[in-house]
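Re: the multi-chain job from yesterday

Posting the exact lines I submitted so nobody has to dig through the queue logs.
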Amino acid sequence: MADHSNEVLAPTPGERLANFFKRKDVARTTVLFFLWTVLFIVLGLFFYPKWMPEIMSKEMKSAESIMIWFTVISAPIAGIVLAITTNAFMNMHRGDTPPEDGPAIRTHGPIVAIWTIGSLVFALVAIAWGLIEINSQAIAAASDAKSAITVEVTGSQWLWTFNYPAQGIETHDLNLPVGVPVIFDVKSADVNHSFWPVQLGVKVDANAQVTTVIHTTPTKIGAIDVKCAELCGLYHAYMETNGAVMSQADFNAWVVAQGGHTA
Amino acid sequence: MSTLDKVHTSSRPVPHPKRSLITRLHMGTGVVVGVLFAAIAYSLLKNSVLTYTDGVADPLSPHNNNIVLLGAMFAWSIGFMVGIGAFIGPWRWLIGKDLTDEEILYMAGDGQGTKRYFKYCTDHKVVGIQYLVGVMTLLGVGGTMAMMIRTNLARPGGHFVTATVYNSLVGLHGITMIIAMIIVATGPFGNYIMPIMIGAYDMAFPRLNALSWWVLFTAIPVLCSAWFLGGIPTGWTAYAPLSVQAGPGMNAFLATIIIFAVSTAVAGMNITTTVVAMRTKGMKWNRVPIFVIGSTISVALAIPAFPTFMVAMIMTSLDRTFNTGFFDANMGGSGWLYANLFWIMGHPEVYVILIPGVAALMEIAPVFVRKPLFSYNAAIMGFAGIAGLSILVWAHHMYIAGWAPSLNGAFMVTTEMISIPTGLLFLVLIGTMWRGKPWMKLPMLSVIAFIWDFLIGGITGIYLSDVPADGYLHGSMFVTAHFHFTLMGAALTGAIGGLAYWYPKMTGRMLNERAGYISFWFVQIGFNVVFFGMFMAGAEGQPRRVMDYAALYKNSNLISTMGAYSVGIGMIILLWAVIHSWRHGKVAPMNPWGAKTLEWTVPYPVPLTNFDELPVITSDPYGYGKGK
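And the result, structure tokens for all chains:
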């Protein structure tokens, strides 16, 4: 009867993997990976909704979702990078002479390949997400065009002027009816400005002699801040005005009070 | 000057060509001739009217004033170069002669001690030190302006400075820091260290090397003159038509960029040629230290990028002087043309800044972890991929400009693709640290800090490059925070790591460690606090470049300002450490870190021609590690 007790069996791939995770540095890196990943997910889910203003349009919702979910999907990558870095930091060598040499790892083909393909997939997800959003916003803008109201926005140093051609009024406050698509035709009387109704999550530059266009549909009643997002000279900081998204009835009443007419 | 210097200089005869003009020229004569040229140009142009309003000569128009000022500024720059002797060589060629051997040796500054730092000196080590001092000066000035900006923004309604001064601070902080950051690694280390690293006697074109530094030097007083001409209202982007409308201070900005573009073109060409042509025997491309590769890719990327900036500035100057209307829509021009020209330079430029900083850290990591650089090829692919893609992404700065909305998707694709080569840079660094025990000296700490800072900058960049999110974030403080994480958190941290690493070779002394650590933590913690506050302000909806803000943003701004003071304190400590250690630091051994690159095989002070006999290379410099 053959004695097998001294024979060393080659470990199966499963055992090798288990042994790999039993190594002290690997185990610690794994724990750190989960800690950092969770931290980044929490940061994304917690901070952006807390910081960002009220969501008053689909575009604003889309901007906020991108910020939150891109943080969440990049969390595992940040987790790996920071886990290895933290582990190295915790292994630090101090003193006035260099430490002993570490293992001579020149490269590791599969790791480089996995990392490259992983970041390619990550980039493709981000690209696909963005392209789908751009596309759906373009389709919505086209289908809403008939029912939309038009507001002609003029930026000048340092004042916003809003002209509602269908209603026949011109104001310095931006009031909009809720649920009605709006087309902003934006231009400048002098230098470049950038028209930014903050809570609506859209923005477009105002240029002299050309009209730039941006679409949105306010989805919620509330106050909005209109700001200039392009440095336009001395009082750029003060080039802001108020506005509101209001019910159709309130909007009509406001138009009439401004001396305009409702359709 | 250390005693070591004296020992060295006494060991060989000091060249002193008799009756040569070269021996009499220096920075002082340059300033005198420069001012003289400027004065002559000023009075000539002032008295000759070149502008017309409605067909009638109009000496009082702002256009005429712009001609006078621009003329005087360029005359200063040319005059200074004449006065310091930059054109003696070309003049000799013109009359069919050349400099004598003794004159060439004299121009290399051999045996002239401290004096050579103020002369048209062709020694790459002198140029490196000149760049180092220049960079630190620019960073100090730019940092002081940042402190003033944050002080004004500490509370809403702050009026620490007036609106005119505030806008000038924003613009001049921007351009000062951009100039400083472009040269922060390739200037000092690219000139001082790199030729030794590749085993060369000097740069390929030593006289052009001196030219690049002194041309840059002439841009500094021009930039400063903006303050005395009423400041600039445009920010560093100088968008037209605001820049066309702007007052006389704008001329200083335009002239600075044009002069600076000449300097970078000369320096970039010189560094590229040196690396391609002057590597020592055996230094094949796969044995070149990664810092050299990174610097070369960076300056090679700058060669096509900066001319568009120069062109944009020349066209703005023409608009402001001869009313050409390139960028004035009312005259048939287009502000979008300016924006395109600017960002065709502007996006490659951020990688021109970033790559040498990362490359310096990749040079550092193997030395302090005592492991080979992980996947040298991935590092090169990373740099090359970034450089290649970066010339195709410029219009992500223009998603909301209204210029070509249908191109937004295309530019989003190219921009997001940059995350792939960028990911490789992370892989190289974490792969190098994996299973190592990093020797936690100051250079290695910079590697750790870089990884955190660049990760934050990278992730926030991913959503800024996605068009719908940019619709909200563009032009907000969020953008400011993002690019400070990449340019300051990543590139400047890399350069400070490089300074701590190469300081012993450049000064012969060790950088004060305790001061270095204290500075490091003040700067890194403060930096993260500043821009955490700024991410918050931006997400809340605060536009950038504003001198005042609503009460809603008061917490985030206060956080930023407190962090800024911490950065300021840290930087002052670092500055003290650099100056103090230069004279009083512990004398450095030849190879304090036990590194394997060639610069550590030469003594301090480094001999004029670096090597008595050029070394022969048989492997790359990352042969650390047990086994294999």
